[in-house]
Amino acid sequence: MARDTLTITATNAEFDAPDTVLAGLTTIRLVTRGDEPHQAALLRISGGKSYTDFLLALRQPGAPPAWVSVAGGVNAPTPGGIAEATMALEPGTDAILSFLPTRDGFPQLVKGLRRELIVIPSRDRGTAEPVATDTLTASDYAFTNSAAIGAGRHR
């Protein structure tokens, strides 16, 4: 199983990340710099639309267009922290965004926490997921663990 790491560094003003990444199983590492929490949500842009089309659509009121869908991402660690998530990236165009509000109440994507990510097809990278060590089930307003979770790394 081949797995790469995509490191995204978030400051209060921008994301620093590669322009391209190979498709397949990828660990997305979000490194936060600055004094606010940041997230790295990945939205898939499809339907023959471009990242520029996506930015123009953001200016319109209402729900996102049908050609935009949630692809995954990494939720916010504490400011100055690191968070990771492993997911299978599909070839195409994604937008990396942070929807979290700034201190003045605007979404961080309005302040510059947005960028394009091109996912390039790859024949050499597997998409087999790692074997889980624990199961966490989410339901309305609750999480249930398969067993007690102790200190250390878990999948």
Defining traits:
5% helix; five-stranded mixed β-sheet; globular; mainly beta; 155 residues; 1 helix
Q: Could you explain how this protein is built, in words?
A:
It is a single chain. The protein is mainly β and 155 residues long. 5% of the residues lie in helices and 41% in strands. The chain contains one helix and eleven strands; from the N terminus they run βββββαββββββ. It has a five-stranded mixed β-sheet with strand order 3-9-8-5-6, with no helix packed on it. It has a four-stranded mixed β-sheet with strand order 2-1-4-7, with no helix packed on it. The protein has a two-stranded antiparallel ribbon with strand order 10-11. A hairpin with a 2-residue loop joins strand 10 and strand 11. The protein is globular, with a radius of gyration of 16 Å. The protein starts with a strand and ends in a 10-residue tail after the last strand. The mean pLDDT is 89.
